[in-house]
Amino acid sequence: MSYKLIAVDVDGTLLDSKGNLTPETIEAIRKVVAAGLIFTICTGRPIQGVEPLIEKLGLDLPFITYNGAMIVMGKSRKILYAQTMRAEDAFSIYKLGKKLQTTVILWVNNQFYVSPLGPDAANYGELSRTQPLPVTNLDDLIAQGVTKVLFYDNPEKINHWAETVGPSVPPTVNYCTSQPFLLEFFDQKVSKANALARLGAYYGLTREEMIAIGDGQNDLSMIRYAGLGVAMANADPAIQQEADYVTGSNDENGVAHVIYRFCLERDQQPDK
Q1: Which domains does the chain show, CATH number per domain?
Q2: Could you give the CA distance from residue 206 to residue 120 in angstroms, rounded to a whole number?
Q3: What pLDDT score was predicted for residue 75?
Q4: Model's pTM, two decimal places?
Q5: CA-CA to 175 of 20 to 30 Å: which in 21, 84, 192, 271?
Q6: How far apart are CA 157 and CA 102, in angstroms?
Q7: Which of 50, 46, 45 is nearest to 61 (CA)?
Q8: How far apart are CA 203 and CA 253, in angstroms?
């Protein structure tokens, strides 16, 4: 099969366990883009969390953010697609978070607002490269359109809530973990797979012409959707079982391995 688009998750996939983009991975991505393929980052991160990676790659790439809630068309920053939550759903999830006494984060217009404004907010601010702001007028924020709501807490609580909050979540809301300490809620139409389908339609591509690479629960939809769904060796075994192929870990340049194995000609392989 001749693949034409590669969609890659960031944390635990594109980046190694220290959060670095390795020279080997950068070289592979540049080679595959030079060969005419479309490379897209597909992440739960906001735009601000992707921009440093795009700059390091030195390429003009489309990217999918907020777990599929927004598609951004490279350097132009044109928004190809954006989906916010229904107002009543955002309000419901916010109230659920307060009931659970966890840190609640709302993303509105590429800025996050948090309650309470404490150490968790500061930690998430560093991760997302965004200065946290307090929730002072919930109704006003929700009226502007909430991209997603997150609960930030210790992994034990997040794992427990991921398994038990279902009955309290409106049917028009999807949710998943993106990091061990984050439970994310977004509109039911939002997923990495749906965003990939929209991006594919923009370029005139079929799902069979796509590769999707990931390691987490929020990557599962695109791993199932793409013609070649790839799980990282560091992914949960349940994710690996759903994949068509398991590559090396994020500390073994697993993304680069997929590029060289499935996308580049023999003469474009790295020097041994």
Answers
A1: 5-82+190-268 (3.40.50.1000), 87-187 (3.30.1240.10)
A2: 41
A3: 87
A4: 0.91
A5: 21
A6: 9
A7: 50
A8: 28
CA dihedral 209, 71, 229, 267 (to 10 degrees): 60
Average confidence (pLDDT) per 10 residues, the chain, 272 residues: 94 96 98 98 94 95 97 93 98 98 97 95 91 96 98 97 97 93 97 98 98 96 98 96 98 98 76 53
Strand partners, 190: none
Chain centroid to Cα 129, Å, comes to 15
Instruction: Retrieve residue 39's tokens.
Output: 């490379």
Q: For helices 119-128 and 47-57, what crossing angle results, to 10°?
A: 40
The first and second tokens of residue 217, run together, are: 């629960």
CA distance 52 to 182: 22
Q: Is the link from the previous residue into 116 a cis peptide, with omega within 30 of 0?
A: yes
* Whole-number Å distance between alpha carbons of 159 and 179: 10
